Predict the structure.
Amino acid sequence: MPYPTERLRRLRGTRAMRRLVAETSLEPRQFIYPMFAVHGRGVKQPIRSMPGQHRWSVDLLGDQARRIARLGIGGILVFGIPAAKDEIGSEAYADDGIAQQAVRAIKDATSDLLVVTDVCLCEYTSHGHCGVVDPRGRVLNDPTLELLARTTVSHAAAGADIVAPSDMMDGRVGAIRAALDDNGFADTAIMAYSAKYASAFYGPFREAAESAPQFGDRRGYQMDPPNRRQALREVELDIEEGADIVMVKPALAYLDIIRLVRDEFEVPLAAYNVSGEYAMVRAAAARKWIDGRAVTMEILNAIKRAGADIIITYHAAEAARWLQA
Ligand code: PBG
């Protein structure tokens, strides 16, 4: 039925009409808020490259977690910044490591949030790579798996609901599932960073977590940005190995990958709206070059529309507040 009878603008005329027919909506329950934990007491240290985000000491995390729970946000993704780094990232799997302490503090404070832990060695190793490195500087896959598995068991013992391996070693989901099951944590879920690209959008995070590689880069283990079919292979293998939730990361420059994975697989899909995506919005908004709130909501809607069920985002708290208003 062509114009003048058919008028698509009818459904756009008022806010009430737009709200009625919106095909996508955002819900705080589907947000996961990344937080950085540091040693010390009373520490709330702003992260220069991520305005509005902080490094928190464990004693302050409980309060923060309660505030985030009150906003209806689904979970917190915990990153730890250790006291000391070494070649094999020992604090990553220490029972009283920073991430383990943070998990206990959040769990003690509230049961209304899921606690997700990032499982990786890069914040904990002196060389800043996500695995064990040999004398020639190669990142060794198989010896890394055991350390990742130990890390997840220590996170689960601290009370983590979900462990999220972000290292991109082959076979890590299977190794982690087996270790969790062997240690009595059959109920701990795995959210795998499955299609994780070697991205320059992680720049601000590496400053926040002090995790930049000291030599080389991560292109030998993280995915190459031109690839699409390979993302399907990564996701497929992770599901076969036992991933409960899969992830595409970053989000904004990879919306096509989010849609592809959504169409191909049945498991819940998370997308990580990463540090560089957040930093760009905040930087332009601070200069009043864009309307930060409107752009943020447009981006989050786009990630949802592309097919993500869950959005991991530094915007989680502000977006949840805006959704309440
Ligand atoms: C650890 C890890 C990284 C991010 C999440 N987990 C950094 C990296 O792979 O270099 C990036 C998160 C972000 O940029 O917000 N491997």
Observations:
- Residues 118, 120, 122, 130, 166, 202, 205-206, 211, 218, 274-275 surround PBG (CB under 6 Å).
- The mean pLDDT is 97.
- The radius of gyration is 20 Å.
